[in-house]
Design a protein that fits this description.
By secondary structure, the protein is of the alpha+beta class. The chain is built from eight helices and 15 strands. It has two domains: about 220 residues, Cupredoxins -  blue copper proteins (Immunoglobulin-like), CATH 2.60.40; about 110 residues, Cytochrome Bc1 Complex, Chain D, domain 2. Helix 2 runs antiparallel to helix 3.
Length: about 350
């Protein structure tokens, strides 16, 4: 039941619209309570709607009996005697104990069987294992038998069972895919897993369903379910990266910024986010050449003044604690290290930073 209830409550998208807010998942036609089912875990919907119907039935029954009793047995005069002096009714008490017990046991057996199914991946799923890495506040995906990684988006093959190996780099997160009817907490220092078979082509929303800090509501990703032909094409849909020119690299870097960096850094120069703004890191000199500005940092316990350059950006991405910005409040915050972010993507991010440069 944890899976079911977690699907219904999600924080709204964040107030800082650096990335396009996802549209809410389309609801099922039946009572419109759950998003459209896109996996083979049909027992989740059956259990949910059974529970829903039981709750409605007993709510109407109890409220009806209460309303009837209030009207029929209300006191009409101040000296009216009690309608009955009966203190209990054993058959009635047994009835309203046994019947709910039977219903609850049905729910338990139904939910337990479904939970065991979700926790026992099929053989085909174990042979198609992805890795999903959660961190504040983004998702990174590693593909089976492919060196590339994607951020904020993941592509799956239609009708092919898939298993996700889950890990957290910092705090408690949760992998919640409402349309696939799966949810699993991700505990730091411990691997978790889940599996499902995507049965419908389309684009679906992945949420973090455990509060993980300031920008928890922005921690969502897109799940693309595509045909086998599209998934297996020579140019993988998750590995498209254009850095043929500095402008193209900056455009690719901007896309990556929106996926993994916008939750902590802005490009407007405004203060108040978790990390320092990117605008102003580079400026244009009188000759139009883009140069880095000076910045106060602390390295090995000593305060230093450095000039921002490509090497500093690379170091800040891969080992952010080595040179911490002294400016408050950023010095108090920690950045998630990304030691395995490939050089092409880092260069794209740097080109995007430089594209923000203005004349001093």
């Amino acid at each position: 039941m944890t899976t079911v209830f977690a699907l219904l409550i999600q924080d709204p998208p964040g107030k800082i619209n650096y990335v396009e807010n996802p549209a809410p998942p389309a609801p099922n036609d039946f009572w419109g309570q759950l998003p459209v089912l896109a996996s083979d875990f049909t027992h989740v919907d059956g259990l949910f709607y059974f529970t829903y119907a039981v709750c409605i039935f007993f709510f109407v029954l109890i409220l009806g009996v209460l309303a009837f009793s209030c009207v029929k047995y209300r006191r009409k005069t101040w000296d009216q005697p009690a309608a009955s002096n009966t203190t209990h009714n054993t058959p009635l008490e047994v009835t309203w104990t046994v019947i709910p017990l039977i219903i609850v046991m049905i729910m338990f057996a139904w939910g337990f069987a479904g939970s065991m199914d979700m926790m026992t991946p099929s053989h085909d799923a174990t042979r198609n294992t992805y890795k999903a890495t959660a961190s504040q506040w983004n998702w990174k995906f590693t593909y089976p038998n492919h060196p590339a990684q994607s951020f904020g988006e993941v592509w799956l093959e239609h009708n092919k069972p898939v298993q996700f190996l889950l890990e957290s780099t910092d705090v408690l997160h949760a992998f919640s895919l409402p349309s696939m009817r799966v949810k699993r907490d991700i505990i730091p220092g411990r691997f978790q897993s889940l599996w499902f078979t995507p049965t419908e082509l389309g684009e679906y929303h992945l949420f973090c369903a455990e509060y993980c800090g300031q920008d928890h509501s922005r921690m969502y990703a897109k799940v693309h379910v595509v045909t086998s032909a599209e998934f297996n094409q020579a140019e993988k849909p998750w590995d498209k990266w254009d850095d043929s020119t500095p402008a193209a690299a900056a455009k690719s870097g901007e896309s990556l910024y929106k996926q993994i960096c916008a939750s902590c850094h802005n490009t407007s120069g405004a203060r108040g986010m978790t990390g320092p703004p990117w605008k102003g890191l580079f400026v244009k000199g009188p000759d139009g050449k883009v140069v880095g500005r000076q910045r106060e940092v602390r390295e090995n316990g000593e305060n230093k003044t450095i000039t921002v350059d490509d090497a500093y950006i690379v170091e800040s991405i891969r080992t952010p604690e080595k040179k911490k910005v002294l400016e408050e409040p950023y010095f108090k915050n920690n950045m998630t290290a990304m030691p395995d972010l490939d050089e092409r993507k880092i260069k794209g991010i740097i080109e995007f930073m430089k594209s923000l440069a203005e004349a001093p």
